[in-house]
Amino acid sequence: MIDLRSDTVTQPSQPMLSAMMTAETGDDVYGDDPTMKALEAKGAAISGKEAAIFLPSGTQANLVALLCHCQRGEEYIVGQLAHNYKYEAGGAAVLGSIQPQPVLAAADGTLPLDVVEQFIKPDDFHFAITRLLSLENTHNGKVLPLSYLAQAYDFTRSHRLALHIDGARIFNASVSLNVPLTDITRYCDTLTICLSKGLGTPVGSLLCGSADYIQRARRWRKMTGGAMRQVGILAAAGLYALEHNVTRLREDHDNAAWLAEQLRGIGVNVMRQDTNMVFVRLPQAQVAPLKSWMREHDIVLSTGPVTRLVTHLNIDRPALEKLVRHWQTFLAQQQG
Ligand SMILES: *Cc1c(COP(=O)(O)O)cnc(C)c1O
Questions:
Q1: Which residues pair with 163 in a beta bridge?
Q2: Ligand 1 pocket test: which of 87, 134, 224 has the largest number of ligand atoms within 8 Å of its C-beta?
Q3: Where are the alpha helices (DSSP H) in the chain?
Q4: Ligand 1 contacts CB of residue 312 (under 6 A)
Q5: Which candidate in 36, 240, 245, 298 could, as Cys together with 235 as Cys, close a disulfide (CB 3.0–4.6 Å)?
Q6: Half-sphere exposure of 160 (CA within 13 A, CB side)
Q7: All domains of the chain, ordered by start, with CATH?
């Protein structure tokens, strides 16, 4: 099966499974799991933060991050299409009584700071208290420029806000910019990293920040049901991924660029390609037929008027060649 819906669909490889099978475990709620301790130490080291904590999902990592940053009646400024505003079932509002203040992102995925500034509430009892600026990197595949991050960081210092990065795909950003992760994370207080997307583990995210912050995150994680027991088997997958699956993200980006070029070549309306994502515009009449046509050929797409194709470690060049071939036949049939 060739599945281009998302990089979340990646399967654990044999060597990753072997690492999981042989992992040393202990009860992590007692702080006894050596493999988890190693993963959290590694997460802190690679992000240049004092500490890190493992959570079962990126959604829970973002939720816990927001619960640590904001109290009841406080707010975070966030992109209108950001995952931790739009795609997390309103968790911060429901469970934290935290008010989101969404703003529209610019075309490059940044939140324009002059706009953000207008939404910071003055100290007045009519308003929620603005605490946090939350950015997403990458945002729909787009890498936030380092110069912007530097400005955003200074901006938050002068406005007494914290800066969180939802870095579900932050390694795609660091590989794309060809800089160490710390060149990006120096411009934030906290960040989340998904291990289960392009990095290819079955489960898990890391939340990284100061020692004090991560200490508080441990309580929120417990409260939200995310503390787990012999979780070294998952940590082993994470350690394996950080060791072996980071630099190879470049292949996914190269494959996405190749795919975009090939699709343009056969007349598909390719809107853009950024990192491991290709966005194409489909005529409405093709949306459903393309999906079922591909499905018949063991290719899974989530089609829409804007269709997103995501490359990942289970998609190689022959798989993409097959996709392009079937797309071309599909288009020929449509015309015929
Ligand atoms: C996938 C994703 C998450 C977390 O999703 P989970 O499915 O809960 O792991 C968070 N933020 C962004 C930007 C994502 O793409």
A1: 133
A2: 87
A3: 14-21, 34-47, 58-69, 83-86, 91-96, 113-119, 146-158, 170-177, 181-185, 211-223, 232-244, 249-265, 284-296, 317-335
A4: no
A5: 36
A6: 5
A7: 10-244 (3.40.640.10), 248-335 (3.90.1150.10)
Q: Is 55 in the pocket of ligand 1 (CB under 6 A)?
A: no
CA of 134 to the centre of ligand 1 (A): 14
Distance CA 77, CA 156 (A): 11
In the predicted model, what is the mean pLDDT of residues 210-217?
Answer: 98
Contact 280, 269 (CB under 8 A): yes
Ramachandran sector of residue 38 (left: φ over 0; alpha: ψ -120 to 50; beta: rest): alpha
C-alpha–C-alpha distance, residues 306 and 282, integer Å:
6
Q: Are 292 and 314 in contact (CB under 8 A)?
A: no
Q: How far apart are CA 101 and CA 109, in angstroms?
A: 17
pLDDT in tens, 113-159: 999 999 999 999 999 999 999 999 999 999 999 999 999 999 999 99
201 CB within 6 A, ligand 1: no
Three-state DSSP class for residue 279: strand
Using most ligand atoms within 8 A of CB, pick from 78, 86, 135, 166 the residue to mutate for ligand 1.
166
Tokens of 277: 């994502």
Please tell me if the CB atom of residue 166 comes closer than 6 angstroms to any atom of ligand 1.
yes
Task: Work out the average pLDDT over 26-40.
Answer: 98
The DSSP output letter for 313 is T
Of 194, 276, 308, the one to substitute when testing ligand 1's pocket (max ligand atoms within 8 A of C-beta) is 194
> 0.85 exceeded by the pTM?
yes
